[in-house]
Hints:
This protein has helices at about 1-45, 60-65, 85-95, 105-110, 120-130, 140-145, 150-155, 170-190, 195-220. The longest helix has about 40 residues, at about 1-45. It has 2 domains: about 1-45 and about 170-220, no CATH class; about 60-155, no CATH class. Helix content is about 65%, strand content about 0%. With about 220 residues, it is mainly alpha-helical.
Amino acid sequence: MKKKFLKSLCLVGLLLFMMPAIKVNAIETNITEINALENEMKAKNYGYDFKFADKENLKENAKKLPKLKTSQIANGCSCNPYNKEVEDWISEFYNFKLQDYNYLKNYKIYKDKKIEELSVEETLSYMTYIIRGERFCDGHIGCYLENGLIEKLCNNLSRSGNNSPTSISGEINCKKSHWQITTQMVSLSKKKEPQGMLRIARFCLVYVGLFKLGTDCLHE
């Protein structure tokens, strides 16, 4: 009975001794998993990749773009060409270099977001998608003009100046930072851990247990 008790005591001591290492290893494992997920998502091109001709003056030029109000197009969406107001709006859009040359890739990310949540970059990319779509489908602009989306996008440019484009990668970076901070806190707590009774007790339990096991093996 005494031998079994000492063996159990030794195992408890070992577990107590290893608990801080187990916690740190668990956190490091989570960081590794997050890094792997981030690399996988980058490989699948989930991140934004805006390409504007004049990035420096983008927001200032966006404010100069005329606003289009929701209106009905004669003969529905199939009407072509559009009236002068719409044609001028399209011309100004290109004159101010507001088109996103990578709009097809970026559209897949922001297409399900609410209009009021879009940043300037996202809004202009969405407008590029609508305007460029006319080259492949007659009346594409007219459909978005009738359902009010173009007017909402125009209004959004005046209130989205401080917004930043967000994506899944941004959420991953937040989680990654959280785990990094947690790891640093654990590391600091280990460095500042006092040489108190708990640490001494753990050491004594391991030492006595190992010594007893060793003597038992010699006598057997």
